[in-house]
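Kindly inspect this today.
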Amino acid sequence: MTEDPTDNGHEHGDDAPDEDGGHAPDDHEHAGDHSHDDHHHHDIHELGVAVLTVSSSRNIDEDAAGDAIIDTVTDAGHEMAVRELVTDDYDKVQGAVDRFVTRDDTDCVITTGGTGVTPDDVTIEAIEPLFEKRLPGFGELFRTLSYDDIGTKVVGTRAVAGVADGVPVFCLPGSESAVRLGTEEIIVEEAPHLAGLAKREEEPDDADEADLDDAE
């Protein structure tokens, strides 16, 4: 299988003046003080991460990219839930990820390999049908960061992410440098928040709560 190109290296009301002539703190400021905490209170701080390497030319004992993912996520305080290696086969790739996202111990899935443009690069084709929601910003940001290392060759990588059965899935290229970039710079930063949001049960809005109060 030809290596992926990244394998080459890598809202304000007016404030009323107080008696001293200054401005009394307004409700918006107080709301802003709590918005960050509210935004992250669903985060999963210790993720169970499933790692899937897609390769027809290496085995799990020679899987530097998979090792790099595990080193990075465990260093960040997360745990490896399961690790597998499969060949570049549509059904095997899709089947592995489908199994991973249904595991009770898995909050996030990271795959490496098979994101290029050769005929046997089928990771994206296999996994995208599982997505209930897509996260296009992941691929966009990954390619932006990769440009510093490999320049215009980023057009040849199809790194993507999405949510499958309530679990974020990130698909990275097959090189160790690309995996370290994507995992260190993006995934460990955002996966806890994305995983928490994806698993969050639907909460009633104010109108729903008012209806419930009236019914009681």
